[in-house]
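TOPIC: backbone geometry
CONTENTS: sequence, structure tokens:
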Amino acid sequence: QLQLVESGGGLVQPGGSLRLSCAASGVTLEYYAIGWFRQAPGNEREGVSCISSSGRIANYADSVKGRFTASRDNAKNTVYLQMNSLTPEDTAVYYCQAYYTNYCSGPANYWGQGTQVTVSS
């Protein structure tokens, strides 16, 4: 059974960095595009990034462009989201989702339980 597990969240001061991981078991992630999403209390879910199954294409929401970088290590069956220059507005639960396609389109096939990111001094 496929399972996605996010990790790497935590409490960080404004201006700090975190690297989130999305690890898979039960399936080879290299065939899946991976989307990162976040949801803060009282807010709609927001798409943060999508990285293609090949890893050659990655897109970002305007709110994180230039600060966040998605990458993948298919040998480790893991996708990463490097988050730099964090602000309190980045505080949210972050989720990864897997799409059995080249890019993040249509309904996700699998998703994780999320990891909390809190940016606060």
Q: What stands out?
A: The radius of gyration is 13 Å. The mean pLDDT is 94.
